[in-house]
């Protein structure tokens, strides 16, 4: 192909970039239901608000104290010979060390692009039909844009879930 014949249709490029941006916002807001939920923050990321940790520790201490009182009164297991001390509950470690959010966002965005046959590469560099590989690459682009829009919503605009706001407030209180 003669390089002198090559050119980009800038109107098409602009349309594709706007579509990618809009799709990134849609995917981000849809995934916010999962990523900002208390379940995801506690179980997957292993983060809990201090108020929840304190309540769980108090509950565990009360249960251990009750168990010790029963043992001393003879209602517990006989012949143990030593008393158990109350232990603080272990904090769940979660799987926060693995890139769960990014992986989930990529899979969802790639699935959306494949299902709707949205292949930005084949649209910018015109082909007769879209390709699965192009749709998957577009999904990666959308997922990356989704992560950027999360930062925009959280940091610049201050839009956060209640669970995320509690964690951020406690982190600020610890710092200063």
Q: SS-based structural class?
A: mainly alpha
What share of residues is helical? 55-70%
Global mean pLDDT: 79
Tell me the number of strands.
Answer: 0
The biggest beta sheet reads:
none
| Annotation field: number of helices | 7
Write the layout of secondary structure elements.
Elements (H helix, E strand, L loop, with lengths): L9 H26 L2 H7 L5 H23 L27 H16 L4 H5 L7 H25 L5 H14 L1
Structure description:
There is one protein chain. By secondary structure, this protein is mainly α. It folds into two domains: 7-47 and 97-175, no CATH class; 49-91. It has seven helices and no strands. The protein has helices at residues 10-35, 38-44, 50-72, 100-115, 120-124, 132-156, 162-175. It starts with 9 loop residues before the first helix and ends with a helix. The model has no long low-confidence stretch (mean pLDDT 79).
For the structure shown, list the relevant keywords:
single chain, 176 residues, mainly alpha, 2 domains, 66% helix
In short:
The protein is an all-alpha fold and 176 residues long. Helix content is 66%, strand content 0%. Helix 1 packs across helix 6 (132-156) and helix 4 packs across helix 6 (132-156).
């Amino acid at each position: 192909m003669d390089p002198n014949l090559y050119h980009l249709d800038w109107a098409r490029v602009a349309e594709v970039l706007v579509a990618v941006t809009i799709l990134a916002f849609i995917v981000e807001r849809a995934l916010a239901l999962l990523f900002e939920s208390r379940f995801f923050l506690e179980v997957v990321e292993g983060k809990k608000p201090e108020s929840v940790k304190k309540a769980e520790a108090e509950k565990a201490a009360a249960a251990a104290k009750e168990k010790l009182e029963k043992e001393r009164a003879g209602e517990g297991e006989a012949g143990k010979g030593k008393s158990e001390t109350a232990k603080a509950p272990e904090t769940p470690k979660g799987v926060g060390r693995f890139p769960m959010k990014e992986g989930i966002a990529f899979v969802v965005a790639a699935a959306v692009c494949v299902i709707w046959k949205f292949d930005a590469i084949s649209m910018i560099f015109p082909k007769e039909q879209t390709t699965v590989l192009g749709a998957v690459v577009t999904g990666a682009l959308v997922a990356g844009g989704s992560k950027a829009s999360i930062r925009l919503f959280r940091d610049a605009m201050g839009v956060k879930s209640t669970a995320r706001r509690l964690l951020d407030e406690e982190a600020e209180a610890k710092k200063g």
